[in-house]
Amino acid sequence: MTATIENPNYRYPARSKGRRGPNLEKAGWIFMRASGVVLIVLIFGHLAYNLLWTPGGIHAIDFGFVGGKLAQPFWQWWDVLMLWLAILHGSNGMRTIVNDYVHQPRLRTIALGAIAAAAAILIILGTLITFTFDPCPAGADAALLPEFCASR
Amino acid sequence: MSDTTSSLTLPDPAPKRERIGGTLYRGNEGMWSWVLHRITGVAIYFFLLVHVLDTSLIRVSPEAYNTVIAAYKNPIMGLGEVGLVAAVVLHALNGLRIILVDTWSWATKHQRLLFWIVVGVAVVLMAYFTPTHLINVFSPIEEGH
Hints:
The complex is a heterodimer. Chain A is mostly helical. Chain A is built from four helices and no strands. Chain A is 62% helix and 0% strand. Chain A starts with 23 loop residues before the first helix and ends in a 20-residue tail after the last helix. Chain B contains five helices and no strands. Chain A: Keywords: Heme, Iron, Membrane, Metal-binding, Transmembrane, Transmembrane helix. Chain A: Its main location: membrane. Chain A: The chain crosses the membrane at residues 27-49, 75-98, 110-133.
């Protein structure tokens, strides 16, 4: 006589029995690694360009500098990709930490909701601003604007 | 009555060691790199929330953006930025270490050595970043840009 033992001595299977649909936890695991590698390139580039390779570094950062960068599609897409990946990577990391340490169901729901709301608001806000932003706003003090605004 | 003794009634065997250690992740470089990854990750997350909001002021007015970004230029914030970049560098390099440990058996066996390589590379990168940034931070601010 034979007996079939399902998941012998294994209390935590990778997937719950009977669960259907895509394996979102596995997708999240892959996303953290893939986005992490891309973020290293984007953030190290962001830091090197803004703080090391621009003369003056942190002191040179003002509306003229950022406006000049975001007037170019290259930096628009760089910053938007960095925004999406960083917020999603960071929010998923915070979700992991909340799942590890917050055991009270109600508090956990509130914390996860706050993380998701913050992520949605910042991604929408940042994306809209990057693509609707005017580097030469009418009526602004010309001394504060990027240099190319003078020739417009 | 049966003579059978359930193993459940036996006293717990004496723990082999009092100190936490000897497993893959507990008590050595494996655990401390995990703690460091969490702390740096949370710190970067909260900075990210603020940084998206301050950058959003470019949509309000040049004056509003310049006023808020000026807060990043005082020396105390300048030192904080060194800490932030160190957190980013450690999180980035340890993230690469995690990918290697997950996918490459040599790296799984040598994860402790890899942690010290992460620390070493982070020190080298910070030796490149810190002098340049602090010279900028402590230089007199010029008029305009």
